[in-house]
């Protein structure tokens, strides 16, 4: 598979790289790093990253404006995206050839080539392994910084169980490049006072059930009170995981016409529940959308069932 991907990269002079909407450090890091790796390896090729700019991650990379006409003879690569409706910029279908590179459990099959490795911690880890394959691709400091950010992001700073020996070995390799690690961590983890106050609110108002399921509901009124929009609240999603007794948790964030749900777990598998509620993701970290607080209750009931079953199994 890696050979086929490298052959395609070698063949095309125009390469356009996509990733999922509402990017996280892995989506953006893998996308921009792949762009950089191809650029340094093939200076004569035109390589672009497309999608909406994400202001909170602009310290990692900015997106390119790509004319529709460029797609006609282009290779399109989509990073870190399991389902087609989550791909940022639907022009991904307009290229001459399409490649999917992802570490999420398979949802949609798409692309002329599909490289899917659910055992990889991150798509960034996969891009690094692609760069090591054969002699064609070359790393540089910019790409190393982006891949390190993606790995750190998707492993929760090497804390989640998706962190493997290979993850650590690659991270070690990447640290040999001379980027400013402190500045990178500040960009990823420094929080604004409003976010700190929201964390305080979450810790004062969460609910913890007998099954070990914890929930917090952030209504529009509450976010207005803290002066935050829905996407900024993602920085507080790990907060409830620090509490003793919490097995899985969900953060609901009310938006105009929908309620976003961020699901996390320390053991029970939850992505099938996310899939049942207009979402999906990893076994222990998923996202979903519900359209009323009654539907949010149903989502909680489904989570409660898997948490209880998990607790029983442990006994
Ligand atoms: Mn990822």
From TrEMBL:
Residues 15-151 form the DDH domain. GO terms for molecular function: 3'(2'),5'-bisphosphate nucleotidase activity. It is an enzyme of class 3 (hydrolase). Coiled coil: none annotated. Signal peptide: none annotated. Its EC number is 3.1.3.7. Keywords: Hydrolase. The keyword Repressor does not apply. Residues 225-306 form the DHHA1 domain. PANTHER family: BIFUNCTIONAL OLIGORIBONUCLEASE AND PAP PHOSPHATASE NRNA. This is Bifunctional oligoribonuclease/PAP phosphatase NrnA. It holds the Pfam family DHH. The lineage of its organism: Bacteria, Bacillati, Bacillota, Bacilli, Bacillales. Gene3D superfamilies: 3.10.310.30, inorganic pyrophosphatase (n-terminal core). InterPro entries: DDH_dom, DHH_sf, DHHA1_dom, Oligoribo/pAp-PDE_c-di-AMP_PDE.
């Amino acid at each position: 598979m890696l050979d086929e991907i490298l052959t395609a990269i070698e063949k095309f002079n125009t390469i356009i790289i996509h990733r999922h909407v509402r990017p996280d450090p892995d989506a953006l890091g893998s996308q921009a790093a792949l762009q950089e790796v191809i650029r340094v390896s093939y200076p004569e090729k035109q390589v672009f990253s497309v999608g909406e700019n994400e202001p909170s991650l602009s310290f990692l990379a900015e997106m390119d404006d790509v004319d529709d006409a460029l797609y006609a003879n282009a290779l399109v690569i989509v990073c870190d995206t399991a389902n087609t409706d989550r791909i940022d910029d639907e022009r991904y279908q307009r290229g001459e050839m399409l490649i999917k590179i992802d570490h999420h459990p398979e949802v949609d099959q798409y692309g002329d080539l599909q490289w899917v490795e659910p055992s990889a911690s991150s798509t960034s880890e996969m891009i690094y392994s692609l760069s090591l394959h054969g002699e064609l691709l070359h790393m540089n400091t910019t790409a190393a910084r982006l891949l390190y950010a993606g790995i750190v992001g998707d492993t929760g700073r090497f804390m989640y169980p998706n962190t493997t020996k290979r993850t650590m070995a690659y991270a070690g390799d990447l640290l040999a490049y001379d980027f400013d690690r402190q500045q990178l961590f500040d960009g990823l983890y420094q929080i604004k006072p409003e976010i700190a106050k929201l964390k305080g609110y979450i810790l004062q108002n969460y609910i913890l059930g007998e099954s070990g399921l914890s929930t917090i509901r952030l209504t529009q009124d509450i976010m207005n009170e803290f002066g935050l929009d829905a996407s900024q609240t993602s920085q507080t999603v790990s907060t409830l995981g620090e509490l003793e007794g919490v097995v899985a948790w969900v953060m609901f964030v009310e938006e105009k016409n929908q309620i976003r749900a961020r699901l996390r777990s320390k053991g029970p598998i939850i992505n099938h529940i996310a899939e049942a509620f207009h979402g999906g993701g990893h076994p222990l970290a998923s996202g979903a959308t519900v359209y009323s607080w009654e539907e949010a209750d149903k989502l909680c009931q489904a989570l409660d069932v898997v948490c209880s079953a998990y607790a029983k199994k442990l006994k």
